[in-house]
Amino acid sequence: MVSPIRLALVDELAEHDRLVELGVGDRPAVARALAERGCRVVAVDIDPGDRTLAAAREVENEGVEGSLRVRRGDVLALAKGTGDSGTRPLADADERDAIDAVYACNLPAELQRPTVALADRLDAVCVFTTLGFEEPVVPVRRRSVEGASLYVARDDERGERSPGPE
Predict the structure, then answer these.
(1) Given 2, 49, 64, 151, which residue has the most CB atoms within 10 angstroms?
(2) What is the CATH number of the domain that holds 50?
């Protein structure tokens, strides 16, 4: 089941075809919901949880239109694009088929800069939620949805970093 706040994130991202969720952990609800809407999602975490691995198997077995792939990876290495740990988690991504969006749920302040750097490297939209008690440490445009804040660091309109609040 997807909470109203996370459903708002799904609604925000469902227009994109290829997405990367960073720090999925054991919370696959957003990635799975996006796959069920026909999106191709690569969920990345240093240690993906059992529920996330099970969700990926279920999506594959249920013949869902989209896909959910789970990969081990470190956002710091991905942001730099160095070594196997900087490229292997996204190796499923077809070179001809660029990543459209990078997103994260409950993104801690210390991972916001590398997350946006990865989105920059991929020329992708970047949307995230924070832990709730932290403010973003990168320039963002805030969107209030279902009583929660979504932070847009890169968007489609300009294809570049958000200048901050509008």
Answers:
(1) 151
(2) 3.40.50.150
| Radius of gyration (C-alpha) of the chain in whole angstroms | 15
Domain that holds residue 55: 4-154
Q: Which two tokens stand for residue 60?
A: 């594959």
Is residue 164 in a domain?
A: no
Give the pLDDT confidence of 112-144 residue by residue, as tens digits: 999 999 999 889 999 999 988 889 999 999 988
Strand locations in 7-49 (E): 18-22, 40-45
Number of domains making up the chain = 1
Q: CA of 18: how far to CAs of 3, 92, 130, 142, 146, in Å?
A: 22, 11, 22, 23, 25
Mean pLDDT lowest for which of 4-8, 55-59, 71-75, 151-155? 4-8
Residues 6 or more apart whose Cβ sits within 8 Å of residue 91: none
Note the pTM of the prediction, 2 decimals. Answer: 0.87
pLDDT tens figures, 61-79: 998 899 999 999 999 999 9
Note whether residue 163 is domain-resident: no
